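Subgroup meeting minutes
Present: P.N., E.W., G.H.
Scribe: E.W.

1. P.N. recapped why we're keeping a running log of single-chain structure predictions: easier to compare across weeks, and new members can see raw inputs and outputs side by side.
2. G.H. added today's entry (168 aa).
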Amino acid sequence: MPSNTSQILIRPFHPDDQSAAKALILAGLAEHWGWLDPTCNPDLDDITTSYADALFLVAYLAGQVVGTGALLRRSQTIAEIVRMSVAKPYRRRGIGRLILTHLVDMARQTGFKQVVLETTASWHEVVQFYKNNGFQVTHYQDGDIYFCLDLTRPNKPSQPGWQQEKEE
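Output recorded in log:
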């Protein structure tokens, strides 16, 4: 279900976003797992501190947080995307793609050569979302799937911002 993504505001996390961003991410995890262990996500208790050296983005629509995503430095050449989440009622509207595109663009501008990420291999829609956006599977381990996007290659139609068929 496409929507007008011009109404979406993507901006860096602000401490005022804390409760909404944490709730959104935890709701997504509970939805996928069917339960939630609150002790497994201590980074979300203080996002400002936990992601002080990262780019943590929030997506706003109609004054509410509807998506999140963060870019972490893993080395001089590798960045990792974490905490990608879109609120269930707002999925498949291009919000995940917008967040991902912003994070990948920032990785390019910062000079990273690769962007990596991991997700649960059984989350088929999420796996397909990353594949549709140019990420290549590198390996599977302990029920997770690992991806890499090579930023040294020129943009291709399969990279973020180009393909509009399936969205998170």
